[in-house]
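Fold description:
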Amino acid sequence: MRRALIFLGLLCLSGAHLLAQPFDNSQLQRYSEEGERALAEKRYPEAEKAYEKLRQLDSGIAEVHGKLGLIYFQQGKFAQAVLALRQALKLKPNLLNADSLLAMSLSELGHYDEALPGLQTGFRRSSDPALRRMIGLQLQRSYTGLQRDREAVEVTLELTRLYPQDPEVLYHAARLSANFAYLAMRKLSLVAPTSVWMRQAAGETYESQGHHDLAIREYRQVLALDPRRPGIHFRLGRALLSRSPTEALKEFEQELELDPTNANAAYELAEIHRKAGQLDRAQKFFEAALRNYPDFEEAQLGLGRVLIALKKPDTALPHLRKAISLNPENEVAYYQLSQAHKALGSATEQQKALTEFQRLRSQKSRQQEPVKQALSPREVTRQELDPGAVP
């Protein structure tokens, strides 16, 4: 974070009007040029020497103190940065971005109370996206350090809204969320270790880690305590799915008896029937999943491929197009679309869909995905290509 901050600081504090007065002294001119050149080339020790010479020659120039604060910060000399920046602001209270850099220096030292006002103001008023991002990260850090969790979460949400694709922002958001989740779970384990909530949380944790036997045990404990608890038969079915599709099917059916609007359970039932070749039953449950949730991408795709198998490619087309509109990067949807056009005898449209399918497939093969996702955003089995289906 520090290197990026300093780069921003260079942009904000450097320029043709570094000094507040003209250079009449050749030494001032020489050290200024040396310092600017070293700073531009990121030779910070040399830049530090040059600006310290400038400060000795004339200690009344706010910009010199500001540049020194910048240089100290880059080298991790935060205490010196604070002194230099405070002097700069004493000489020129409105020196551009010096107050934000001072606040970030204080944050680096762990002086969160002192840092907070400057960070709050900087985050609120900055019009530069990159600078606001860095101030926001330090503000998040300060709130966390002060155990002001609500404000830390608010800043985190704002940062992820402003910078939804930023890896560092997402990392800190995930870390903060994980920390809060850990603390909440720890407290839950202390105040209600045998409660239905603790059992459910344990089951979900085991399931997310792939420990299905342990998850099954916990979910069954939940049902022993509360037999009509919504969502648990579905979760139990998900945990059973890889081990015993027949047992999983029974759990999904029980979930729908308790909650007929559970689209995830209906979808999983449809998938089990589709894979078993029971196409009419699969169609019935895919349609049930979509009845209340028409934007259920995987269900739209699943229904489309069932209709193709039932020799109804014209009826399949709207569902496949809907799936693509929901997720234009889904290669399976384009492949199934090509099959629908093939069945309809539309060679041109079939080739268009195949071309897009092949492009997406090639693109994905070049990407390094550390873990293959087993679940869609709705936590259901993803639609995949049948073995040997790819041309």
